[in-house]
Amino acid sequence: MRKLLQSLHERLPGWAADWLDTLVPLLEVLLISLAAWLAMRLARQLMRRASRTYGLPVNFATLFLRIAAVLVYGSALLWALERFGVSGAVLWSAFTGFATVAAVAFFAAWSVLSNLFCALLIYITRAFRVGDVVELLEPGGTPLVKGRVADINLVYTTLRESGDASNGTSLQLPNTLFFQRALRRWHGEATAAAGEDDGG
């Protein structure tokens, strides 16, 4: 590419060579922007397909697309700045500084992120669904907690222990807990019987 530009510089008159120095970076930035837009469009289509296939909630799709947008558009911005002559060393220093802060924030928010990941696994593996009766067991098989699944969000799974939405008790469990304990799930008629035992 550099050799092609150099040969064009030599063949063109001076005023055209100056315009070439301006137009080529602009064209490269337009191509970078187009590539970023296409990458995000592909990410949206993949997330739509995954949501339909695995029944992922809207919150997951939104979170994934926001993270993807930050990565794709951030990379495109850094690449475009480089095309305009911003020093690679400056960009690398800024990136490493940002990565350090992000790593510290990641470890500080590890418990929240692990709950997000476990919520995703609950949906993908179909371990249980809203309306199922589940029970967590201690390692020896002793029941720990039991209830009907009322809601699964990004951090907690809500179990209704007794009663209904207006009267009764419910329990919010971190999603990670379902991957640290044995899980019993009732099916068919056993679900109705288990729900009656809880007063549901």
UniProtKB/TrEMBL annotation:
It comes from the Bacteria. It is found in: Cell inner membrane; Membrane. The keyword Transmembrane helix applies. It is a multi-pass membrane protein. The keyword Ion transport applies. The chain crosses the membrane at residues 20-39, 60-81, 101-124. InterPro entries: LSM_dom_sf, MscS_archaea/bacteria_type, MscS_beta-dom_sf, MscS_channel_2nd. Its main location: membrane. Keywords: Cell inner membrane, Cell membrane, Ion channel, Ion transport, Membrane, Transmembrane, Transmembrane helix, Transport. Residues 112-180 form the Mechanosensitive ion channel MscS domain. Mechanosensitive channel that participates in the regulation of osmotic pressure changes within the cell, opening in response to stretch forces in the membrane lipid bilayer, without the need for other proteins. Contributes to normal resistance to hypoosmotic shock. Forms an ion channel of 1.0 nanosiemens conductance with a slight preference for anions. Homoheptamer. Belongs to the MscS (TC 1.A.23) family. This is Small-conductance mechanosensitive channel. It comes from Pelomonas aquatica.
